[in-house]
Amino acid sequence: MANSIALPLQEFIASLDPTCLPNILQVCSGVYFQGSVYELSGSEVCFSTGDLIKVIGIELQSVTCEDVSTNEKFELPISHTGLFKVVPDQMPYSSLKEMLSLRPVGLDSSLPFTFTSHTKMSFGSLTLGAGKALTVLSIEQHEGEEDQVRCLVKGQAEASAEVCIPLSSRGQFYECESEECYSLKEIMSSPFLCSRRFRLIKNTNCERVLVLSPIYQIQAIMNLRKNVLRFPSSLEVDVVDVTDLCKDVDFVTPLTLTEVLSQPDESLPAVVEILEEPQSHSLFKSSWLPGLTKGAHLVFHKKRTTGMVVLSSLKGRKAQQYFLVSQEYGGRFRKRPREFNSVYELYVASTQAPGLTVSVTKNCEEVEEEGLPALSVGEKLEIVDCTRMEVPGDSSKKKAQSVEALLCHRLQDPDDADDDDDEDESAEEAEQKDEKEAVLMPLYMQGHFVEALRDNKKYKLCDLGNFSLPLDMKVVSRDTELKADPLVGFTCLRIEGVLLEPTIQASFPHKPDDCFELPANWLTMSVCYTKEPLPWPEGQCPKCFIERVIEVSDTFFYEFRKQGNTDEAPPPRPPKRDLSSLSSKKPSKPSKKSTKLKKSKLSVPTDKGVPTDQFSHTQSMKLDEINHVFVFSAGNLCDVTADVDSDHDYETVDDSLVCLVKSAQESVAFY
């Protein structure tokens, strides 16, 4: 503890000259000590005995008024518009010079003012009796002569006279109450007025004598405190001034990564110490993350804004992985066809990339009541536009519903065109053939589609900015500058989004050339600058190898998605199905291409060489009661039509029949 006089904080700040800042104070004693905590306007201020406080600024905020007679206190803002009168002191002045030197403001601006003398005064032939009131008009100064005070004396019958009294005159002089009024700002700006007592002027007569004390907002910094502290000077702690003893004390200021980015460019490169380790370990899976511990040192090389891409692997047997990749990544990509599991997904993709063409990967039967068209494996569809269609429903009970639908054009394969030439077509059918066949699919329809691609080029990551996202890609050539490229080996990687991320290029002191980038907006940690030298010879900064692929967790990916797709609309709800109509509905005929596929399957023998008619004699069941023939090929059950030209409708195979057929399949395999 410094050998200085301890003063209450309020008293010390009131006597502090703002031009002498900064000042270093040490908390020593008082009502609050050993970790006192103050809750001030929602911010917590904590002081302990021995703490050092570096005062860097003070600002007058308000004034405390204390009633002399009752000790009652109240606070007024510095902007208070009320006026105050000076209450004359009860103690006498021993000379005119003393009385004039203690005037609250400059002497010329405070004139005139009135005082009385409790002793008789004689000036040559003039004698003034005790108790006479004298009003000071001016100070007479003549070279080579003593200064004199020119005063006005009032006599009887309103007679008055002016007299000059030497400034060195002694006696018992008392101030008279002045009619001059002052505002709070004027009082607080004058050290002489601050030491006086006042009476607040109101509409009604106020006799309360007040002592005014300024309250300052103190701006200070403390060691290991992140922000500038702001607290009032009215805190009841005692402090001592240790500025001269603590000139060389460094006040460490913690900085977040974002605050480091706001520092001047000249502040880097530098060696920093981690004061608070990252609180977001769950966001990253990088090799450098375990090294970011409290007390560890890092080399901050430079700061920049890096273009980054968020990649994800496809769901499968292995856990899904996510990566944050710099656009400087040197590997090459090739497009991969996207898969879609609903018409709504097709619609979303078509809005991002017009002209989308897909192939059907799973058959779909036509359901007229729900507006579902018939689709066959291999058919190609060109997405045209989003429109509306009428869903008939159960015409006996409900009216048709208008729903959103995707308008597509069914593209004809060359093989299909050759087959059509062999068939007899009417003039009307030939005319319709020249036009593209339109297909309407409601957006709530489920299906399986794959994108039809014609692009086989290789792309750099930085060249994919003109494509609509998401985009499925595959790494076909690795980044040769990476020791191990984690993106190689994935059958498909999906580009989920692009972001411009402010980063800090950093490394560990023992490997200054092995650098990695710290995303400032995704890492919550604090550091401070140290005075340690850089780990390389002066002026010989090493060539840095920068890690370009950062593996991130699913938590990072979900947080990233929340920042972007907040306005994405959910898929439309399908119309309610009338279950009573499903029992009586008639399944529609499959599409033309589906019929051809079924027709061709009839001529394909089974793998075991067992004809269909031979298999029918092997089983005890009567397959002639069913309008389907079941052909077993490589252990798979294929449903084909017994008679393509038959007028009978196709029947739905129930679960019991499927079990029976499976039993028959096992018998054939054994046979």
UniProtKB/TrEMBL annotation:
Residues 414-432 have a biased composition (Acidic residues). It comes from the Eukaryota. Residues 586-601 have a biased composition (Basic residues). One of its GO terms (cellular component) is cytoplasm. Residues 21-246, 268-506 form the CABIT domain. InterPro entries: CABIT_dom, THEMIS. One of its GO terms (biological process) is T cell receptor signaling pathway. Residues 410-437, 563-615 are annotated as: Disordered. Pfam families: CABIT (PF12736). Belongs to the themis family. PANTHER family: CABIT DOMAIN-CONTAINING PROTEIN (PTHR15215), PROTEIN THEMIS2 (PTHR15215:SF2). This is Thymocyte selection associated family member 2.
